[in-house]
Write a structure and sequence with these properties.
Rossmann fold, 13 strands, 6-stranded mixed beta sheet, alpha/beta, single chain, 2 domains, disordered N terminus
Length: 342
């Protein structure tokens, strides 16, 4: 089996395993989730791989332990060896640069190993996979009261829209319950991505691919928990992040759940094509909303009000709970109303 990725010419990743279905699944996962400009070739035996290497230079080789026994030992300098008898933890032997990982771990772990290997490659071969030609569509989400409900709704909106297109969800609210709601835990969060992007912008896609996680049709990045850390990020940094997402990834739509303390809050809201704002009918909630809208008008941000849709949490969602089914239903209803023009 030999399939070439249909993109601009770039460095080559070779996958070699005698199980054709395994090759196919891993190939498809990498094509979908690895953003760098690579060509991917699949091989089901070492002989065809050796013949290919005589004609082409393989930058990274992902190969099963059985097939590796029969390949030329100088075939590639960057090898990920798929083993069947280890615990699944990445291992690098002291006397070589071969990364060893269990063959049957989730594909995301193999992708993470690939990203780690590519981190060591020269910057000049890590070309962009996608140059953004259209503006980034930002959908805003904000609440002055029920912030956890707003977060849950926003990520479900991303999930629902993600069934038809690539959607990224960003949580810019401190002390977020996102990890509890999605049941996704991460060692790195959005602050790490911003730091790495500042230190080495040429490898943004590698850091990005390593940090994005799958959630029911959309991608998410773990949020910044600390209020002071979140407030310290400038609007210049946010703009740089949005520009990198637009120009270096295939995402053209992001949903951002915002909090009041974000630097450049009004600028981000002004860029939004639509804003969902959860409100309540009680006196205190209405008073806060009136203050918020007055402030927008005084600072000539009427455009924000024009694209804001006030929404009330439905009665089937209990207060103080994060019931996924309820928020999924709510998101479907909102998207359905938007598509119907209501």
């Amino acid at each position: 089996m030999n399939k070439e990725k249909i993109i601009q010419s770039g460095p080559i990743i070779a996958i070699c395993d005698s199980e054709e279905d395994y090759c196919y699944r891993l190939d498809e996962y990498l094509r979908t989730n690895f953003s760098l400009e690579f060509e991917i070739y699949d091989f089901t035996n070492s002989n065809s791989l050796n013949e290919f290497q005589n004609k082409e230079n393989i930058m990274v080789l992902i190969i099963s332990e059985k097939e590796y026994e029969d390949v030329e030992k100088n075939i590639c300098q960057n090898i990920i060896l798929l083993q069947e008898d280890n615990a699944g933890i990445n291992q690098v032997a002291e006397n070589d640069n071969i990364v060893r990982i269990n063959k049957y771990v989730p594909s995301k772990m193999i992708l993470n190993s690939l990203v780690d290997v590519c981190m060591e490659l020269p910057d000049n071969i890590l070309g962009k996979n996608f140059e953004g030609s259209s503006a980034l569509d930002i959908i805003g989400s904000i609440s002055l009261n029920d912030k956890d409900a707003q977060m849950a709704l926003a990520v479900e909106l991303a999930s629902e829209l993600g069934q038809k297109e690539k959607v990224l969800f960003l949580e810019l609210s401190p002390f977020s319950c996102l990890s509890k709601y999605t049941q996704i835990s991460c060692e790195e969060n959005l602050s790490d991505l911003l730091y790495y992007m500042d230190c080495n912008p040429d490898k943004f896609l590698l850091y990005f691919d390593r940090m994005v996680k799958d959630y029911d049709g959309c991608k998410i990045i773990a949020p910044i928990i600390s209020p002071s850390q979140l407030k310290s990020i400038t609007k210049i940094q946010w703009n740089a992040l949005f520009k990198a997402i637009q120009n270096k990834t295939e995402f053209k739509k992001i949903i951002i759940n915002l909090s009041e303390g974000i630097d450049g809050l009004y600028e981000i809201l002004s860029r939004s094509s639509k804003i969902y704002m959860t409100v309540s009918n009680d006196e205190i909630s209405q008073y806060k909303i009136n203050q918020y809208e007055t402030l927008l008008k005084e600072n000539e941000y009427e455009k924000i009000l024009a694209v804001t849709q006030r929404i009330i949490k439905p009665s089937y969602i209990a207060t103080g709970t994060l019931n996924n089914a309820g928020y999924k239903r709510w998101a479907k209803e909102l998207i359905g109303g938007l598509e119907n023009g209501t």
